[in-house]
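Course assignment 3, question 2. Fill in each field.
Student: A.L.
Task: Predict the tertiary structure for the chain below.
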Amino acid sequence: MLVLPALEFHADAELCIITGDLTDQAHRKAYQDFREILQQLPIPFHPLVGNHDPSKIFSEVFPEVPLDKDGFVQQVLETPAGNFLFLDTVEHGNHWGSFCEKRGAWL
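Answer field:
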């Protein structure tokens, strides 16, 4: 796993944002293993869903990551360095993302 060694080169990092496609296989055990790795980080982490991540498993393994009123994994994270806007573009059944009207209304 490259997450922990990467911190050697970025010792000044204050937050780790993982931008989706979290595991090679979309199995619950893989997400649980990944969570265990992230919990070893000395800084806060924030995983996001990618177009190959099953939202249901993601939400069960990372229940602290909020869902919007329509069940999408999107939010604004306010930090001293600035605000981060996280958008969920997962379109189940497709290998590409999309941005529907409900997601747009959230903005």
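Instructor remarks: The first helix runs from residue 3 to 9. The first strand starts at residue 16 and ends at 19.
Grade: pending
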